[in-house]
Design brief:
By secondary structure, this protein is of the alpha/beta class. Helices cover 32% and strands 25% of the residues. Strands 2-1-3-4-9-8-7-5-6 form a 9-stranded mixed sheet, with helices on both faces. The chain has a 5-stranded parallel sheet with strand order 12-11-10-13-14, with helices on both faces. The chain binds xanthosine-5'-monophosphate.
Length: 509
């Protein structure tokens, strides 16, 4: 399989670069700038992309790389910091720009360059830089400019090295996708073999070989990743796979039954469902502190899970739905690391497996979803919105009780049903109901009521690090509110959360 290396110099868009390359059907992997050149040589890349980064190349503590990389004979594309680094490595002049550029800027391309095939001479690009290339290195010619950047793109066609000061990976760059396409297909001469059908066939074959005739155990959460991992493993080894699904009673309405039905009817595997809602309720009795609730739910979840595993008579391999962003080693300096969630589960000392199997460790989330669809996993699971591990436990403020779970499940179901019927759900990254520990006065018929308040939370976001409250049209909110107060007992008031993140978080806790 052909591969592109995304050499990480600490920029914020590195995963996005790899995803954009993969969107063009070429596999891309990210390695930190500390990777030895021998490893890069051995891996046989079709091309290398130097990422952006927050540093200045002339600061010697910044990430650098040996100049030998420019002579490997492998095409290179430098982006932003990566562009300046190429200039600096070739003894060009990089300095603080008289005018920094940030945001959408008009770019003029030299249409003769292969990198700019099928793009307009003038287009909008996304810039974010305070340094610039004052003089390109020897052997390079300028192939693009902006008003404030005399060398916004350069090339050395003899060595197949190209560099752009802007970010083609960001959708604000009008022809960014075409520029990456040109690099991959015109310059690196890729064929485009990264398609999900191939991935499934290759992975199934690899899993068969790796697992042989042994058993494999997977913890199924009902989330996208573990569901797709289960689908792949089932296709590879069928009944040798045992999926353990711990239902702590804190999932959305009917979700536990749906997961069980899906996996027992669609896939060949052993499915073990452990219903332990009562245990969780007893442990959570009287607990109101959100952190304590999280801790209890997390601890009990793993106690139940590992006890079930200890009951299995043969363990074999332990499978996990770890995906690519969980596995990438960051190229940033320690201080700058924005931590990716390390979702690998630690196994207890007394539980010994033959090894760990991670069938999704090369995939981004959108690719996991594509694989899930191809495996025939229902779209409710494949396109499931994020759902916190502690489940409704973080959406019931104060003590968690069976009654509150039921009220929240019903209200949340009405919200989801309405959003699915009116189609508005496709505009939202996440939406759900929250049950705050609040009762208010209301009136129903001639009677005064004193009952629960429900809050609706709905956000739009790309990455969940920041989020906007969703501007759902009033008539939709009115219908949802009406239905919730009419259809769900013990709710007499509905409010809508209009807080962005920051300062709010998505969950209320
Ligand atoms: P916050 O509330 O931190 O949430 O703004 C950001 C995103 O993370 C989800 N979330 C969790 N996901 N385990 C998870 O797998 C958790 O404990 C957890 N807590 C929050 C939240 O739903 C949102 O999508």
């Amino acid at each position: 399989m052909e591969k592109i290396l995304v050499l990480d110099f600490g920029g914020q868009y590195n995963q996005l670069i790899a995803r954009r390359v993969r969107d063009h059907r070429v596999y891309a992997e990210i390695l930190p700038y500390t990777t030895p050149i021998e490893t890069i040589k051995d891996n046989g890349y079709k091309g290398i992309i130097f990422t952006g980064g927050p540093n200045s190349v002339f600061d010697m503590s910044s990430p650098h790389y040996t100049k030998d990389i420019l002579n490997l004979g492998v095409p290179i594309l430098g982006i932003c910091y990566g562009c300046q680094l190429i200039a600096w490595m070739g003894d060009g002049e990089v300095k603080t720009a008289p005018v920094s550029e940030y945001g959408k800027i008009e770019f003029t391309a030299d249409k003769k360059s292969k990198l700019f095939n099928n793009i307009d001479e003038k287009s909008i690009v996304w810039m974010s830089h305070t340094d610039y290339i004052a003089t390109p290195p020897q052997g390079f010619e300028i192939i693009g400019t902006t008003d404030d950047c005399p060398c916004a793109a350069m090339q050395n066609t003899t060595k197949s090295i190209y560099a752009v000061q802007f970010h083609p990976e960001v959708t604000h760059s009008q022809f960014g996708s075409q520029i990456l396409y040109n690099f991959l297909y015109e310059i690196c001469e890729c064929a485009g073999d990264w398609v999900m059908d191939n991935f499934i066939d290759n992975t199934v074959a690899k899993l068969k070989e790796e697992i042989g005739n042994k058993k494999v155990i997977l913890g199924l959460s009902g989330g996208v990743d573990s569901s797709v991992a289960a689908g792949l493993l089932s296709r590879a080894v069928g009944k040798q796979l045992t999926c353990v699904f711990v239902d702590q009673g804190l999932m959305r309405k009917d979700e536990g039954d749906f997961v069980e039905k899906t996996f027992t009817s669609l896939f060949d595997m052993n499915f073990v469902r452990v219903n332990c809602g009562d245990l969780f309720l007893s442990k959570l009795k009287g607990v109101i502190d959100p952190e304590e609730k999280r801790k209890i739910i997390g601890t009990e979840f793993f106690n139940v899970f590992w006890n079930e595993i200890r009951n299995q008579n043969e363990l074999g391999y332990f499978a996990q739905g770890t995906i690519y962003p969980d596995c990438i080693e960051s190229g940033k300096g320690d201080a700058d690391v924005i931590k990716t969630h390390h979702n690998r589960v630690k196994t207890p000392d007394d539980v010994e497996f033959l090894g760990i199997v991670e069938p999704l460790c090369d995939l981004f989330k959108d690719e996991v979803r594509k694989v899930g669809e191809k495996l025939g996993i229902p779209k409710e699971l494949v396109w499931r919105q994020p759902f916190p591990g502690p489940g409704l436990g973080v959406r019931i403020i104060g003590e968690v009780t069976a009654d509150k779970i039921k009220i929240l499940q019903e209200a949340d179901w009405v919200l989801r049903d309405e959003m699915s019927k009116n189609g508005y759900e496709k505009n939202l990254a996440q939406f759900f109901c929250v049950l705050p520990d609040v009762k208010t006065v209301g009136v129903m018929g001639d009677h005064r009521t004193y009952d629960h308040l429900i809050a609706i939370r709905a956000v739009t976001t790309d990455d969940f690090m920041t989020a906007d409250w969703a501007k759902i049209p009033y008539d939709i909110l009115a219908k949802v509110s009406n239905r919730i107060t009419n259809e769900v007992e013990h709710i007499n008031r509905v409010v809508y959360d209009i807080t962005s993140k920051p300062p709010g978080t998505v969950e209320w806790e």
